[in-house]
């Protein structure tokens, strides 16, 4: 009888442990740039060690990540389109937006630079691309990178982007692969570019323009909209990633000695 009771107690303990483990997993909707740059393989193990919480990342474009939050399919978001993030908060889908880190966008293209874009002016570069109908690969996926690219075309006053313009509806890595194989231009976040192995003849041609600044933010999905949101665990991630420990972990991620992201939780808006 005692053995039966002991087995029953062990079974109950296992069930409780399994339930606790299930409660210690949250879903993060984030961008392909944070995932394909390798940041999360560096960042999330450090968070789990500090908190015991697992994070399942769904890496999509920022627009899709925000839509996941609107549907209640994620607990926390980690994205990079500040205007869209602020709209998400204003609509009541998120509790509060917190800046986390930044890097920049770069215009990548063939070393021969047939459109003569090399320099620090992204708007002038896109005008040149359109003028000569140069091959240009656009994400076309409503991501943060795509939103930035479309903003630059608008600033250039260009509606007709040329016959070489192609939207792939894909992530940053596939877009870079397409540009590498076709010898085209592409706007990329620097983090994914630094981790990209299939560069071929591609090189950075436009960088340093203040317009190319790329801010990342994080938000917990509002439980008033979606009661199933694991608010406590999601907030633990937000609190950690903007804390000194989380910010130091972001800064420590490097490839070949180059830092990919720069923490600015306490200085950015």
Automatic annotation (TrEMBL):
InterPro entries: ABC-Tungstate_binding (IPR052738), PBP_domain (IPR024370). Residues 19-244 form the PBP domain. Residues 1-22 form the signal peptide. Keywords: Signal. It holds the Pfam family PBP_like_2. PANTHER family: EXTRACELLULAR TUNGSTATE BINDING PROTEIN. This is Tungstate transport system substrate-binding protein.
């Amino acid at each position: 009888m005692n053995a039966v009771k002991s087995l029953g107690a062990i079974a109950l303990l296992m069930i409780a442990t399994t339930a606790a483990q299930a409660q210690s997993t949250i879903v993060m909707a984030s961008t392909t740039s944070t995932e394909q740059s390798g940041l999360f393989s560096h960042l999330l193990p450090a968070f789990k060690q500090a908190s015991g919480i697992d994070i399942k990342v769904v890496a999509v474009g920022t627009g899709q990540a925000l839509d996941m939050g609107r549907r209640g399919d994620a607990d926390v978001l980690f994205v990079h389109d500040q205007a869209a993030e602020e709209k998400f908060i204003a609509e009541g889908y998120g509790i509060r937006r917190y800046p986390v880190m930044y890097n920049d966008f770069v215009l990548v293209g063939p070393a021969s630079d047939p459109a003569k874009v090399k320099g620090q002016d992204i708007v002038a570069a896109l005008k040149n691309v359109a003028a000569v109908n140069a091959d240009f690969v656009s994400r076309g996926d409503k991501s943060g990178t795509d939103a930035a690219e479309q903003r630059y075309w608008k600033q250039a006053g260009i509606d007709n982007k040329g016959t070489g313009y192609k939207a792939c509806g894909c992530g940053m890595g596939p877009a870079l692969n397409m540009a590498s194989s076709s010898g085209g231009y592409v706007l990329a976040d620097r983090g994914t570019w630094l981790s990209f192995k299939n560069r071929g003849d591609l090189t950075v041609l436009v960088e340093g323009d203040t317009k190319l600044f790329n801010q990342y933010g994080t938000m917990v999905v509002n439980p008033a909209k979606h009661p199933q949101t694991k608010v406590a665990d999601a907030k633990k991630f937000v609190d950690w990633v903007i804390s000194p420990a989380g910010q130091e972990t972001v800064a420590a991620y490097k490839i070949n000695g180059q830092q990919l992201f720069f923490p600015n939780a306490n200085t950015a808006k």
